[in-house]
Amino acid sequence: TKPSLLRPSIREFFVLSFDFAMVKELKLRILENLVDETNVQMVLRELQAYICWQSLPEFVTLAVQSIAHVALKISSVTDSCLRGLVKMLDSKCEALACEAVVALRALLQRRQKNMDSGLGTVLPHLVRYLEDLAAPTARASVVWIIGQYQSEAPQLAPDVIRKLAKTFATERQE
Q1: What mean pLDDT comes out for the span 157-172?
Q2: pTM for the complete prediction?
Q3: Which of 20, 71, 110, 133 sits CB 3.0–4.6 Å from 81 for a disulfide?
């Protein structure tokens, strides 16, 4: 309830590799609550380090979610977090790439529509990535992003709809 009391000790809540899974999750939530303008860069660097823990896909997913929560809380880092999430799409770890797409959608949903998203160069990459995505939430996120920002790459949306129409009956509800 009073994060200012714990902010000086924020490093104590950094996740250690040998922490139990529940402790790791709690520490991430605490970091999200303690982050502010003065420590946001340090927290984001720490969260980016957790992304490299590819042997723990569940934890990597939580770390990506934490990055999105931090970006939503501290608007000055939203753009850099968006760029970081786009870079995560190239990951070999499917859990990371899928969660990055979902987080990307969450951040874009909260941006003002009249702002230039800068996604014109990213949308073709998302379209190519859509074919490999297995997670229904991630697939739905890509479709949403393409639909919302189709004006930045108008030639892509019809092609995506054509491809998705072929498999629409087998798609999950999301």
Answers
A1: 84
A2: 0.80
A3: 71
CA gap 87, 6 in Å, rounded: 32
* Measured CA distances, 171 to 65, 99, 102, 143, 147 (Å): 24, 19, 17, 12, 17
Q: How far apart are CA 15 and CA 151, in angstroms?
A: 41
Task: Work out the percent of the chain whose per-residue pLDDT is above 70.
Answer: 94
**Residue 165 Cα to chain centre, angstroms:** 27
Q: How many helices (H) and strands (E) does the chain have?
A: 9, 0
**φ and ψ at residue 115, rounded to 5 degrees:** -75, 145
Q: Of the ranges 21-30, 137-146, 159-168, which is most confident?
A: 21-30
Which residues, including other chains, have CB under 8 Å from residue 113's CB and lie 6 or more apart?
Answer: none
The yes-or-no verdict on residue 82 having pLDDT over 60 is: yes
